[in-house]
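From the methods appendix. Each design record in this collection lists the tokenized structure first, followed by the designed amino acid sequence. Records were kept in a plain field format so they could be parsed without special tools. The example shown here is representative of the layout used throughout.

RECORD:
FOLD TOKENS (272 positions):
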């Protein structure tokens, strides 16, 4: 009985020793595995599981993957320790340039909107004023040319702000003509008609005409002076002229004479 007890004790002690040995090996293996895990994480940026390899673990595939990762790291070249700092600087510059670009795009959009608004307002005001001038021109032209017709038109296909203005007139006994086909006197009366048509849109208290009657014959001078008398109800006209018939229709006449050489003198005559 005593012998058996001793035998059991020896086996028990031997088992305990083997258990301690196995525990030491397990701890050592865990330490090695953790070291390998940290190395893999540092060198290959791969986090491997620290555990007993599972049954289907493919060692060859793992070796091939390791080799592939090594090759990729090698192809990447040496690590630039200033890369992060350079990246931050370039990103800061990129953000600045992006902000500048966005500001320019917003400013461009705002400018385009403003230009469109100005163009729309200008186009509307221009067309309104043009239509008034057109109506005035058609009436004034008839007062200068008996049984005549005149009008102004814009090019239909062009932008009103950039379109050419065409003047079309028809005098007594003639067909519709453009301004270039008229005589010099007819051109002058047509120009004066247009001038008065613009004047009627927004009359001014004073209007100065400098020798506009020079190309006119006696018949057209009469029409011109009658128009001046009609418009002089609301506006005072100052006319520079050498035509005697124009002078005859004036209410006050101012002349410049030179009694002595180099000395000018103004002489005025007021007609009742």
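DESIGN:
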């Amino acid at each position: 009985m005593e012998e058996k007890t001793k035998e059991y004790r020896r086996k028990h002690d031997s088992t305990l020793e083997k258990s301690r040995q196995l525990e030491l090996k397990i701890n050592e293996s865990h330490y090695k595995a953790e070291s390998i895990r940290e190395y893999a994480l540092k060198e290959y940026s791969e986090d491997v599981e620290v555990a007993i390899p599972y049954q289907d673990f493919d060692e060859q595939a793992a070796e091939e993957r390791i080799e592939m990762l090594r090759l990729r790291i090698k192809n990447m070249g040496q690590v630039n320790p200033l890369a992060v700092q350079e990246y931050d600087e370039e990103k800061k510059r990129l953000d600045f340039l992006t902000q500048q670009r966005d500001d320019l795009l917003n400013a461009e959009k705002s400018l385009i909107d403003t230009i469109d608004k100005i163009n729309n307002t200008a186009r509307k005001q221009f067309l309104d004023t043009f239509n008034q001038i057109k109506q005035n021109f058609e009436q004034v032209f008839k007062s200068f040319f008996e049984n005549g017709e005149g009008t102004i038109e814009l090019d239909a296909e062009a932008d009103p702000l950039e379109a050419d203005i065409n003047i079309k007139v028809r005098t007594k006994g003639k067909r519709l003509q453009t301004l270039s086909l008229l005589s010099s006197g007819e051109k002058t009366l047509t120009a004066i008609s247009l001038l008065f048509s613009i004047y009627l849109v927004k009359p001014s208290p004073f209007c100065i005409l400098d020798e506009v009657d020079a190309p006119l014959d006696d018949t057209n001078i009469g029409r011109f002076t009658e128009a001046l008398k009609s418009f002089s109800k609301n506006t005072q006209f100052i006319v520079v002229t050498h035509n005697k018939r124009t002078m005859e229709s004036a209410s006050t006449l101012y002349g410049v004479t030179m009694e002595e050489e180099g000395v000018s003198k103004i002489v005025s005559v007021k007609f009742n």
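APPENDIX NOTE: The chain has three domains: 4-76, 91-202, 203-271.
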